[in-house]
Design goal:
By secondary structure, the protein is α/β, with parallel strands linked by helices. It has a domain of about 120 residues: NAD(P)-binding Rossmann-like Domain (Rossmann fold), CATH 3.40.50. It contains twelve helices and ten strands. The strands form three sheets. Strands 2-1-3-4-5-9 form a six-stranded parallel β-sheet, with helices on both faces. Strand 4, helix 4 and strand 5 form a beta-alpha-beta unit. Helix 3 packs parallel to helix 4 and helix 8 packs antiparallel against helix 9.
Length: about 280
């Protein structure tokens, strides 16, 4: 039985961090939720040092910041982890990273954090979250109008994953002290296949509607603010315009972390679509 640990989790009340905190707690760990509200500010290295003190591991999920501030946040987290004597830094990159920095702050910041001089660093790289479809800006449209409004082509087969599965990988990485860089791909799934899965789960017709990145930014803006909405939309524009990339290899993550992601149909049946429909 793995030894319980004290684990500091950034964004533990947010959409990415909450499943991580819940999973780690269920495994018997002492979870230390980190946010500005509890005095752990990624722009303030001293506050991070205090937040990390005595923690065995830190789970870092950088916020949706797309400018140079992301670089400073990552630098602060890395140096604070070193100074606090953190043994294990787990980074949920929230994207597939290039092998080296390329001058894009959102991606380069993850490289900066991963260079922290601590005994173990684990970098997990999911590409696109199913949970974006159940987020407030999507769920009411899907359940109420039967429309998935998304800035990707209908035929694009992408390796969608559930946040809960990423949380399980983080739990395993910490419990088994696994370091390294791992892609976390799901089963490649098209927009048409997603629409069919949601159709079955909700019990009403659902269609995929490809929208422009600008239209997507307008949908996100009331929920995320201007900066995050524009940056997220720009990232999707790059994803939609990029040439098809080779399939990501799940074998390293499967062997080291027991990576076994659920498919979209399974995930869809787990979502509270009835509540979204009522809203």
């Amino acid at each position: 039985m793995p030894t319980a640990k004290t684990i500091a989790v950034h964004g533990a009340t947010g959409r990415q961090g909450a499943p991580v905190a819940a999973r780690l707690s269920r495994s018997g760990n002492a979870v230390r939720p980190l946010s500005r509200a509890v005095g752990a500010d990624l722009t303030d290295r001293a506050s991070l040092g205090a937040a990390y003190a005595g923690a065995d591991a830190v789970v870092l999920q950088l916020p949706l910041v797309y400018d140079e501030r992301a670089l400073a946040m990552a630098e602060n987290a890395a140096r604070a982890a070193e100074a606090a004597g953190v043994r294990h830094l787990v980074i949920n990159a929230g994207a597939v990273l290039p092998p080296v920095p390329i001058g894009v702050p959102f991606l380069d910041a993850r490289h900066i954090a991963a260079a922290a001089d601590v005994p173990l660093v684990t970098v997990l790289q999911p590409r696109i979250y199913m949970d974006n479809l159940s987020a407030p800006w999507s769920a009411s449209r899907i359940a109420g109008d039967g429309v998935i409004a998304y800035p990707l082509p209908l035929e694009a087969a992408l390796p969608w994953v559930a946040m809960a599965d990423v949380a399980a990988a983080i739990d395993t990485a910490i419990a088994s002290e696994v370091g390294g860089w791992f892609a976390l791909p799901g089963v490649p799934t098209t927009g048409l296949e997603i629409a069919y899965a949601l159709d079955e789960a909700i019990g009403r017709p659902v269609i995929w509607s490809t929208i422009t990145p600008a239209a997507f930014a307008d949908i996100l803006r009331p929920h995320l603010g201007d900066h995050a909405a524009e940056g997220t939309a720009a990232a999707y524009a790059m994803l939609a315009d990029a040439p098809p990339s080779p399939p990501l290899d799940p074998t390293p993550a499967r062997d080291a972390l027991g990576w076994a992601p659920r498919d979209v149909a399974t995930w869809a049946y787990e979502q509270p679509w009835a509540m979204a429909r009522a809203a």
